[in-house]
Predict the structure.
Amino acid sequence: MERRFNITGFCNPQKHYMVMLDDRLRKIKETYVDNGDYFVINRGRQYGKTTTLKALAKYLEEDYIVFSLDFQKFATASFENEAAFSKAFVQKLSIALRNLKSENMEKAMELLSGLKANDLNISMMELFDCLSNICGISPRPVVLMIDEVDSASNNQVFIDFLAQLRGFYLEREDVPIFHSVILAGVYDIKNLKLKLRPETEHLYNSPWNIAADFDIDMSFSSAQIMSMLEEYEEDYHTGMSTAKMAEEIYQYTSGYPVLVSAICKFIDEKTQKAWSGAGVEEAVKKILTDHSPLFESMIRHLAEYPFMKQMFQAILFQGKEFSYNPDTKEINLSHMFGYAVNRSGKVQIANRIFEMRLYNYFLSEDELSSGIGTLAQRDKNYFIRDGRLDMDMTLKKFVEYFTDIYSGNDDRFIEKHGRKIFLMFLRPIINGTGNYYIEAQTRDARRTDVIVDYLGEQFIVELKIWYGDEYNKRGEAQLSEYLDYYRKDRGYMLSFNFNRNKKTGLREIRTGGKTIVEAVV
């Protein structure tokens, strides 16, 4: 069977091209499991949690007995009360034991069968007494893994289950119980809205305070992506530069597992482009318009948590900085969902694809009421000539339209919304053919660099707030250096100038051997 790239369900190295997990599994075993830790692997959707658990179960089987369960396979009725839960747990564990390749577990099956044969309701205590007996007779330490613990959230029975785990954990020097417990899901257990305490307390209290912090990076590095591509190249001999392709993919995804696989799958199966930068760009364009569970969750969470939405808008359009504070609910949730990361103590969008998807979503919300976007769509033929984007004309028309529509607004409005207005103007011009993204390292309250890619041709546009001639000259020098990095001789600068005596329009500047077209509004 030919291997392929996979974006649904867990990955199997016999069927799928995937990043090798050996280093990750070794770290989890040595750092957490061998030390007897109870911990939670909580990462965003489609981050490789299930794949990691399945690989880890196999990796541990020489030294441990591993009980692997999935709460998603429990019926909703299984969480109605402790008897229903205990019965379902026994049934699922019996199946797991039958599939377990381990010696001397017949007695464990007898213990479980004894519980199942009992017509009376099984209490949570009886369940844990049985589990303790099983751990006591096991030939090796027992590790319990439970995937999709989110399925049991907001549920008192699950609270009771965690409380029992905690109680036995605290007594494990005297009473046999699991050597290590691993729970996996999107939510950190401490953040589940569990019905254990009064409304004002339950968000901050959990019976899972015994858990060790799980601090292993589950994203893919450029080197890991390259190793996956090298396996593909051994099979297909495309002639690609695996190092260059891996770096291209990493620049868009920051190693978010499902996005990495989605780009590779599209290039392999759907595009006519070779394994090249153009192929990556075409794949990204497709991902940005796909309906996927990952992005559906993102949009739903933005609606559920308005502050998260406001924070992302302020970061993207105004260059505002937010200190990373895990005690702030929405910041913590954005990190937990995988949409944002902590970089140098600041909240940043996790990867370029998320940024682009968020830009498109926020701009679409205002598109119908955007006069400047309507004009750009109407006059699109002005800007596309012989299949090429005319950026000089694009900026010239933007200055005209902006002056006509927004000149009556105050400085504060322009400073807050100017960059968003430009992107609303740009989007219908390149939509469906080109892409644009923002260079995160240049995005702040004063400056933002937009990289526009249209049919393989790149344009560097610096958007900046006017803070005087001296600051402007420094900006020109910075843009010149940036053009060197991109090996471009021509760049663009859009200045939002609040000087009442300003001269609007376009002018060309020569600096550092480069030509800069500056548009002033």
About this structure: Residues 193-204 have pLDDT under 50 and may be disordered. The longest helix spans residues 411-430. The chain has four domains: 22-191, 222-287, 290-369, 388-520.
